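Q: What would this chain look like folded?
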Amino acid sequence: MTTVLTYGTFDLFHIGHLRLIERLASMGDRLVVGVSTDEFNAGKGKRSVVSYDDRAAIVGAIKGVDLVIPEHSWDQKRTDIAEHGVDVFVMGDDWAGRFDDLGDLCEVRYLPRTSGVSSTEIKDMLRTLDPAHIEEMQTALGTLTRLLEHYRDLT
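A: My prediction, written as structure tokens:
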């Protein structure tokens, strides 16, 4: 029996998360997913839109996920690998090399991310829709409209 372990925040769950979990589930017989707690994310300077409890419930409801555990710290990975009998530790390739030291406990692999989608990109797009930015865009559009009207009057 092959046990696979990964960690992530899984905020604003999207197709990239689903594809990752599908790939991870196909790599073994049992998939353990560590979901970063809100407190751990805060310590990393990140803030999740969706609460830990909800993110963990979403991940746990996905076919192929056998166990969800909370990720409280960077250094818990060694303990989790031993406690859950992990054979393969997998992270996205944006972490390549970062966890190679775990190779004395299990196989360490890095998978390519799903291109074109990330929670960070989604959050950045949503930020442009906040009221302050909408007002800035309206002001800029008004200025552009006046410039075009002035240009039209000159021609």
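The first strand starts at residue 3 and ends at 8.
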